[in-house]
Amino acid sequence: MSASPPIRTVAIVGSGVVAGMAALALTRTLPHARVELVTMPVPAEALADRLPRLWPSAFPLLPSLGLAEADLLARGIAAPLLARRFTGWSRSGGRWMCPEGETVRIPGTGALHQRWLHAGARMAFHDLFPAAALAEAGRFSPDALVSTELAQADVTLALAPDRFGAVIGAGCQRANVVVSEGPLQAALPGPDGGWRAIRLASGRVIEADLFVWAAGKPLPGEEWLDWSGVLPADRLTVTRTDASGLVDEYETVGDGWRARWAHGDTGIGAVAFNAGIGQAKPVSDAAEPLKLTPGAAAYGWTGNLLRLGDGAAQLGALALPGFTLAAHHLLLALELLPARDMEPVLVAEYNRRARLRTEHLRDFVAAHYLAGGRRRGPFWTGLSAVEPPSSLADTLAQFRRRGQLPHRDEDSVPADAWRAVLLGQGIRPAVPDPVVLGTDRNVERQTLMSACRSLAMQAAQFPDGAPAPGISFVRVPKPHTAQD
Amino acid sequence: MPVQPRSRVVILGGGTAGWMTAAALSALAGAACKVTLVESADIGIVGVGEATLPHLRAFITRLGIDEHAFMAATEATFKLGIEFRDFGRIGDRYIHPFGSYGQPLNGIAFHHHWLRRRGADGTSPIGDYSPAVVAAEQSRFAFPSNRNVTNSFGYAYQFDATRFAPFLRTWSEERGVRRVEGLVANVDRDDPTGDVRALQLSDGQRIEGDLFIDCSGFRSVLLGTALDEPWEDWSHWLPCDRAVAAPCASPPGPIEPFTRAVAMPAGWRWRIPLRHRVGNGYVYSSAHCDDATAQAALLDALETPSLAEPRLLRFKAGRRRRSWVGNVIAVGLASGFLEPLESTSIYLVQMAITRLLEHFPGRTIEPVDRDGFNAAVDAEYDRIRDFLILHYHATTRDDSPFWDHVRTMRIPDSLEEKLELWRRSAQVQQYGYGLFLEPSWVAVYLGQGIIPERWDQRADLLGEEALDRALAELRAAIAREVAAMPDHRDQLMRAA
């Protein structure tokens, strides 16, 4: 079919779920290729591997792994998360949520967030999300996601790394992925920033058409774009806690923030801070802080070398976007997978799109810090002086002006999630939307409140807590529309 | 949020762009602005866009305009796509449909699977997997439905553009738009900001405003002349700079639910079937063809005698560097021009109106308003420009100096990258926003003979037998459902 023959050998370096996921997806995509996984321990700081969260935007990767989100939930490999809740992040200190999915659809004129702004309703913006109604009620059932009124709800999958790793490992075994004992001792350079071969500690040399670096850290000596200025939490302490619920909790403290994350059958407590500013009280005296290096490799793909996971980009612990970003990068790599000669046009297109996706996700996380929220406390005081990346600056300027978001290709974050964060942080547009101005505020307020009450009633019908393993459900596809 | 007084919006020009803008602002932003439209009966309108894109339906729906009333007033027919003849090489033809080809299989876009089986026994042209193409070929039309496989298409209209503006004028004036008859004698500007404060009309009237929308067509009275915003010339990529147009009577037989574009020695010729006549025109490069030759070629191609004297239009491809400067926003031809090969003229008006609503400034304009609007408009123009250039450049024709020129010219880097990506991998450069997404690029690439070296490797994971079965079932389902659609002419009678 092709002038250039397909890839026949792949070598993946890493031992975490990112490397395993890459091995499984590549071997399923290239059934005639020899895919070899070279073990190399992932550091504790590799958040994409250690704390994998799969956001709905990256669910399209799952079929490439032979998996489905319903199955992951039913088998207890993933727990459903309905929202992230933030306490103390806005300037006023109020609580707000960034729920999964979209806002409820209410007939009327104009965008819902503009209607909410115009109505001056007392309810929070996030109350207009079906997922928030479920989260507030502490109730969830997969049936909720296919019910009429709550159909705009969605879930992030909080993957249990050990169980997910076991599923991926079994898949790799079935697909005849070869596992070789590492670690990597040296990489022998090839053309265009790629590798000709790798040498293992055992002395064995492995040549391959494609190499994947998924070892959970940047390649030694590689140029690393430093984003610690806009993602200032560069230290993290974590400890096990009791089981968490359907919501990830984030609360600010003077030196940074604390989180309580769902994590399989248990929970995780975390404290994030900046090493140069101070140290928040650790959740446990025994917990050693992890050193995070927010940033990204200058290029995700050079020559025949693809970087995935924390070796490609690190966006920090807030919202735990690392695994989702790795999944998006892998999905893009499968879509643009070159032939053996690594066509430069495909590699360039991968880098263009991967960079956009990485930067937009960075912007989303950075907006939690830089959108004019909390400024009290050593960690927060200096953030007023931090200049956002130009793309985020543009987003903030547009939203502050009229509540509009610039159109962005390759954004993993739904527009409603952006709105939830920016409105939650306290931004109120300076100029009203002309389309909603003509509607009666009182009528609109009643309409919105009625919709919220209805959501709450619908949510109350579902069972408490997370679903018991064994529940299965069929999802109604929710394509992300390019143009409303 | 502070309540601001309504801003005063002055629209200059009463053509399609002017009245579309007036209609949208009065219907959707009436609480935020008062609209005055200045036009003169002494200035003719270009009447752009006899053929439209499906987006116009959203515009009409959003404004609450009754589709039947609109279609009756403008003698509109339905449109399922554009047929291109003789572009890739003489004798070729394909339809660029409003809608996709087939459906993704295993998450992989349909065209990859089709490429894999291209040439195999039983595999038919890719158009057979598009409900819009199959229906267009048979001159049938039904409204898209969610109940069957033929739901993957959209439709637009072919209409008498000279009747659209009057229709919208009546509609807008009923909703409070103030119309002022007059010619602009002078543009009063503020010192030192340079903002326009008022239009001084030749009869002495003075029309003041906060925001001025320049819909004065090619003359670009405010943005081009008064504000002297530089022109970015794209004629080296899109050399057609003239058109001669002549309507003719509808021939007997079916009314085709598609527009036809036929490549000519120095450009291309359009054929747009309406209810009461057929619109025709020859778009050509004056560097490669004189007016008399173009007119003769057009008249020679008409199926029935011309109903009017041929009308000559002059234009140049390109755009003003910025569409919004100070308190002046250009919409439509006053902002830029891209030839009508893909029926984008009215879309560009509609797009600018949508962006204006998104960036509507109130009485005080901030740079962020202009920046956001201009960035969005620029991106649209650039992407459409590349798509249009592709139609000319993707050819093997060497039968005239014009085709030699466009075949061998240097194209924008942005298009070169897209072409190379397609040739090597059958991948279409993805973007989520804007016009002409993946199915459109696939239609033109394949329709004009650019067959990629390979396809998405994941398409090979599906067994050949299963794939062939899926293709045959899809093709049969489309054929069956199109056969059940009414004839286009009958459908128009029902809609009348």
Automatic annotation (TrEMBL), chain A:
Its EC number is 1.14.19.9. Signal peptide: none annotated. Keywords: Oxidoreductase. Gene3D superfamilies: FAD/NAD(P)-binding domain. It comes from the Bacteria. GO terms for molecular function: monooxygenase activity. The keyword Oxidoreductase applies. This is Tryptophan halogenase. It comes from Sphingomonas aerophila.
Automatic annotation (TrEMBL), chain B:
The active site is at K79. It holds the Pfam family Trp_halogenase. FAD binds at G14, G15, T16, A17, V184, L333. PROSITE patterns: PROKAR_LIPOPROTEIN. The keyword Acetylation does not apply. Its EC number is 1.14.19.9. GO terms for molecular function: monooxygenase activity; nucleotide binding. L-tryptophan binds at E342, I346. The keyword Methyltransferase does not apply. InterPro entries: FAD/NAD-bd_sf, Flavin-dep_Halogenase_NPB, Flavin_halogenase, Trp_halogen. Keywords: FAD, Flavoprotein, Nucleotide-binding, Oxidoreductase. Transmembrane segments: none annotated. It is an enzyme of class 1 (oxidoreductase). 7-chloro-L-tryptophan binds at K79. This is Tryptophan halogenase. It comes from Sphingomonas aerophila.
